[in-house]
Design a protein that fits this description.
Chains: A alpha+beta, B mainly alpha, C mainly beta
Strand content of chain A: 5-15%
Strand order of the largest sheet of chain B: 2-1-3
Order of helices and strands of chain B: HHHHHHHHHHEEHHE
Number of helices of chain B: 12
Radius of gyration of chain B: 26 Å
Strand order of the largest sheet of chain A: 1-4-2-3
Shape of chain B: elongated
Distance between the termini of chain A: 11 Å
Order of helices and strands of chain A: HHEHEHEHE
Distance between the termini of chain B: 21 Å
Number of helices of chain A: 5
Oligomer: heterotrimer
Radius of gyration of chain A: 16 Å
CATH topology of chain A: 60s Ribosomal Protein L30, Chain: A
Number of domains of chain B: 1
CATH superfamily of chain A: OmpA-like domain
Structural class of chain A: alpha+beta
Number of domains of chain A: 1
Helix content of chain A: 40-55%
Shape of chain A: globular
Number of strands of chain A: 4
Largest interface: B-C, 133 and 104 residues
Helix content of chain B: 40-55%
């Protein structure tokens, strides 16, 4: 109980931090969460934990200016994400698409959506069930980095995969 | 005066910047939507209840005022002379350019030097100063040359002027000045009479060709030099304010007026002769700006040579903002 | 021959005593603000004393703020207006070079205000148009001032004014990484701000209905961008589109106020749809695999201008309000977006990105006569004043401390200046002229 509670806490914290209003919808399969054996559950060394997903698998991929193409590096990350999702079927995921500030508001919303969708399509092509994945775009509203230079822009042109699991 | 630069315009505006409205008193503390609603509805109450529909003429206060200028209410004036401003190309600086075609030999002779510089001015208006000074130096010789050359140009002049006649129809030349409405309406008839007379006076017309596009009638006294007309033009344009973002900036208007010997404009004589481009409302605005320019810059009377009064007793000015629009 | 001509000349002199008119063309005027005088109004009862000054202060700010007028300070006046009925001493106003004069009177009875005024063309020695009288509430006095300023403006420029108008926008606060956004409405000059939403959810790009009673906007309230309509008077809102697996944004009213256009995203593709508000029925207007967004109606409701990257980069297109074939109208070097049709119907304002800079620009509806009005790190999202002469937009500064603020500029590119807001703002939309 204690461990599960901690897991739920961490997941909730992660979900809130990444996207405060993300509602789970009906993508969950309803199965209870389980932790792996032998590791400190919930820690980043636990390969079934969202922390592991975030830090080791990698929860984000990046894009070129004005592009939504998933390049080689992104594919590698997304393959790992797909593998993880297949191994941890209790999670659903929201893919957030973002854009850098070098564009107009509506277009960036649409561009972010393209990027999120490109990630989703890659993941489904690797076997992840589509109803576990939802997409949302934040356009340029939620930059990860704040400077107005490509060093920051390149980190803002991203799609972030956020795990959802609030069934107990 | 030339168009002021954008920086200067901004500088003028800086000096008159309205103080920023203090909105801090009006800002609500963050609340949820339901609490905000009453504030919003009171704001709307203010706006929906506050002001009566504006278009109610004032019925309670009587103020006597002079009759508005007639021409704005007389559409026939516009239709009678729609193309008047165009064909003669009434740019004083352009005149020497067109004069050769109108009367090749006299023009060459009448203002040999004065012709060339104004041609340059025709391209860049800011350099009118130059043309004035150049023309001034050539004034005396001009006059003598004009008188001398006139007879030689007689025959050729007739033909050319006849061609220009319909477009260059004098608006008020055959009639005693000062009664603008009648003169404008009656313009077509005097035109024909003018044609015959002009044929005979064509030689004298040549001499005037440099200073005036209007050929037909025999002006009394020596003609206006391009320097003199330039000086007058400059004194009016200094007061012509163009609102370049407005619809009126698309309108070219021609305004007629008459002056007394002191160079003062007879208010009643100021008329809109023609307008081109834009709606009627835009044309009215352009006319009012032109009228303001004429009335503001006269001060105690425009400085014009008294001995040439008959040449400038009636003036028609075309205000063309085409080059001033930001394009 | 010569003798003949001399004789002819004498004959002409004898018979024709008048000269042809001197004809002159003027092509170079000056561009300068028109000096006007606006003495404090005559207070017809003591309750109106403060308003007699305040009204003129707001009227003058309106006029001077356009960049087309310059106020002559009261200290320069030779004579004043002590009674609304007395005749004007034009010479006194000419002497201080006032080309226009505003004379008015105000009285206050309880909570109600009555204002009378006349406008004079000083150098023509006459009144400009008829005198007018407005009445309203004391609380709404600013609106009366704006309406008076609109009349003065329109009588002198020949075009309708824009001072009796409001702007709905996104009020911003917080630092760049923690921006909080909420919908707000204010008078066009920044006064009378009221908030329509809290700051918990991202809100974007609000737009007024043609009568100014409702606002369309995009909100992340559900966790996804969705379009809402809100009644301005009550702040009541309802979501218009909430199908799962989709996002909606960029809504705008049609001139009839009953239909809207918006962008719908599904499966990574964004297209333009129209919706009848009463029934909620939507119709798809574009079906390209490219991004189609930011639609804006022509004032007659027959056409829609929008942005699309179907050519490979963001460009502007015009199609019928029913959808169908679209014609490209932007051809310059750069990317074009956020097109907005002018209320005059003849121009389209837009955002252009070129060589790393952003510009607000205008072009004719066929794409010709493109003119850029501004240039900066990030300008976007123009909106037109009700008379089509002024454009308001968002300007964001660069860097970690970057902030967004509202700015306005005249259609000629002159008079660029900030619009005062409490802590920053973006996505302005101008209301129609007040009724």
């Amino acid at each position: 109980m204690k461990n599960r509670y901690r897991v739920v806490l961490i997941i909730s914290a992660l979900a809130l931090a990444a996207c405060s209003n993300n509602k789970p919808g009906s993508y969950l399969d309803g199965s209870a969460g389980t932790t792996g054996s032998g590791f400190e559950a919930g820690s980043a060394s636990d390969p079934a934990s969202p922390a592991y997903f975030q830090q080791t698998v990698g929860d984000r991929v990046y894009f070129a200016v004005d592009q939504a193409t998933v390049d080689g590096a992104a594919q590698a990350t997304l393959q790992a994400q797909a593998d993880w999702l297949m191994a941890n079927s209790e999670y659903s995921m929201t893919i957030e698409g973002h854009a850098d500030e070098q564009g107009t508001r509506e277009y960036n919303l649409a561009l972010g959506a393209r990027r999120a969708n490109a990630v989703r399509e890659f993941l489904t092509s690797r076997g992840v069930s589509g109803d576990r994945l939802q997409t949302v775009s934040y356009g340029k509203e939620r930059p990860a980095e704040l400077c107005s230079a490509d060093s920051c822009y390149s980190l803002n042109r991203r799609a972030v995969s956020v795990l959802n699991n609030v069934n107990f | 005066m030339s168009v002021i630069s954008s920086a200067e315009f901004d500088a003028i505006n800086e000096a008159y910047q309205a103080p920023l409205v203090d909105t801090s008193a009006q800002v609500l503390l963050p609340t949820d939507v339901s609490e905000a609603a009453p504030e919003v509805s009171s704001a709307i109450d203010q706006t929906t209840e506050s002001v009566a529909p504006p278009a109610r003429p004032d019925q309670n206060v009587e103020v006597t005022r002079p009759q508005p200028p007639e021409p704005l209410d007389q559409p026939e004036i516009v239709t009678v002379i729609p193309d008047q401003p165009k064909p003669p190309q009434p740019t004083t600086t352009d005149l020497p350019v067109t004069a050769p075609t109108a009367a090749p030999r006299p023009a060459d002779r009448v203002a040999p030097e004065a012709v060339a510089p104004p041609e340059e001015d025709a391209i860049v208006d800011e350099q009118t100063q130059e043309s004035v000074s150049l023309a001034d130096t050539g004034q005396k010789t001009e006059k003598q040359e004009q008188v001398a050359k006139a007879p030689e140009a007689a025959t050729t002049e007739i033909i050319t002027e006849a061609k220009e006649r319909p477009s260059g129809a004098p608006s008020s030349s055959p009639r005693p000045r000062a009664r603008p409405p009648e003169s404008e309406v009656a313009k077509p008839q005097p035109t024909q009479a003018a044609e015959q007379e002009t044929v005979d006076t064509s030689s004298v017309q040549d001499a005037l060709a440099q200073a005036m596009e209007a050929k037909p009638y025999a002006p009394l006294g020596p003609p206006m030099t391009s320097g003199e007309t330039d000086a007058f033009r400059i004194s009016v344009q200094a007061c012509w304010v163009v609102d370049v973002g407005s619809e009126a900036a698309n309108v070219t208007v021609t305004v007629a007026m008459s002056l007394d010997r002191d160079g003062k404009v007879d208010d009643n004589s100021l008329k809109l002769l023609a307008s081109e481009g834009g709606s009627e409302s835009a044309a009215n605005t352009a006319f009012r700006a032109a009228r303001r320019a004429i009335l503001r810059c006269q001060k105690d009377g425009y400085k014009l040579p008294v001995e040439k009064y008959d040449h400038w007793r009636d003036i028609e000015i075309t205000f063309n903002p085409e080059e001033m629009r930001t394009r | 021959m010569f003798r003949f001509l001399i004789l002819t000349m004498f004959w002409i002199t004898a018979t024709v005593a008048h000269a042809a008119p001197l004809r002159i063309e003027i092509k170079n005027g000056v561009i300068e603000p028109l000096p006007f005088a606006a003495p404090y109004f005559v207070a017809e009862n003591s309750a109106a004393n403060q308003l007699a000054e305040d009204l003129v202060t707001v009227i003058s700010q309106d006029l001077v703020g356009t960049g087309l007028f310059r106020e002559i300070p009261q200290s320069a006046f030779i004579s004043g207006i002590t009674s609304f009925a007395s005749p004007i001493q034009y010479a006194d106003w000419k002497a201080i070079n006032a080309q226009a004069l505003l004379a008015g009177a105000v009285s206050v009875e309880g909570g109600s205000v009555t204002v009378k005024f006349r406008v004079y063309d000083v150098f023509a020695n006459q009144e400009l148009g008829a005198g007018l009288k407005f009445s309203g509430t004391k609380d709404g006095w600013r609106r009366i001032a704006h309406k008076v300023a609109d009349v003065v403006y329109s009588r002198i420029t020949g075009e309708s004014g824009y001072f009796d108008s409001r702007v709905v926008f996104v009020a911003e606060s917080g630092s760049k990484g923690q921006r909080r956004k909420r919908l707000a409405i204010m008078d066009y000059d920044g006064a009378n701000v009221t908030y329509l939403t809290g700051a918990d959810d991202i809100v974007l790009a609000p737009r007024f209905s043609p009568t100014g009673d409702r606002v369309l906007y995009t909100s992340y309230e559900t966790g996804f961008p969705r379009i809402y309509v809100m009644d301005v008077g009550t702040a009541q809102r309802r979501v218009l589109q909430d199908a799962q697996g989709t996002m909606s944004f960029a809504p705008r009213f049609a001139p009839d106020g009953e239909t809207i256009v918006y962008s719908l995203e599904q499966g990574g593709n964004t297209d333009i749809y129209s919706m009848t508000l009463a029934s909620g029925q939507s119709r798809r207007l574009t079906s390209d695999a490219s991004i189609e967004t930011a639609p804006s109606f022509s004032p007659d409701g027959s056409q829609i201008v929008f942005e699309s990257d179907r050519s490979g980069s963001q460009q502007l297109y015009i199609m019928s309000a029913n959808g169908g074939a679209a014609k490209r109208i932007s051809f310059g070097d750069g990317r074009y977006g956020t097109p907005v049709w002018s209320p005059r119907g003849d121009m389209i304002a837009f955002t252009k990105q070129s060589k790393g800079r952003f510009h607000i620009g205008v072009m004719r509806t066929d794409g010709s006569e493109e003119r850029l009005l501004t240039a900066s790190f990030l300008d976007e999202g123009p909106t037109w004043s009700p008379n089509g002469r002024v454009i308001m937009f968002t300007r964001e500064t660069q860097g970690v401390t970057g902030k967004a603020n509202l700015y306005s500029v005249d259609i000629s590119g002159r008079n660029l200046k900030p619009v005062p807001t409490a802590s920053g703002g973006s996505d302005p939309a101008w209301s129609p002229l007040g009724k």
